Amino acid sequence: QVQLVESGGGLVQAGGSLRLSCAASGSLFSTGDMKWYRQNPGKERDLVARISKSGSTNYADSVKGRFTISRDNAKNTVYLQMNSLKPEDTAIYFCNVWVNNKQTGWSDYWGQGTQVTVSS
Predict the structure, then answer these.
(1) What are the φ and ψ backbone dihedral angles of 89, each rounded to 5 degrees?
(2) What is the mean pLDDT of the chain?
(3) Residue 72, Cβ neighbours under 10 Å: how many?
(4) Where are the beta strands (DSSP E) in 9-90?
(5) CB count, 10 Å around CB of 66?
(6) How many CA atoms lie within 13 Å of 13's alpha carbon, on the beta-carbon side?
(7) d(CA 90, CA 107)
């Protein structure tokens, strides 16, 4: 089976930085499009950033210039470097990764989520 494991969340003061990681493992050939989402209770899950297999990136307007998404294809891992954090960045962050599963082919998988809390 394929699993996505997230790490790197925590508590940080406004203006600080955090780096999130999300690693795909298991019975897979490769990974494709990778994304980060965030969600708060009672709210929709919003796209934060995405990165293609070749490294093309897109960002939500709310994080542009502050967050950077990157990937390591050899490790099947996506990262989110978050700088100049604001209280409104507080959320649970989820990764979503397209995976070429050895048994079932291409499909997308979700990480378990990691809490990011930014204090003022």
Answers:
(1) -80, -10
(2) 97
(3) 11
(4) 10-13, 18-26, 28-39, 46-51, 57-59, 67-72, 77-82
(5) 15
(6) 0
(7) 29
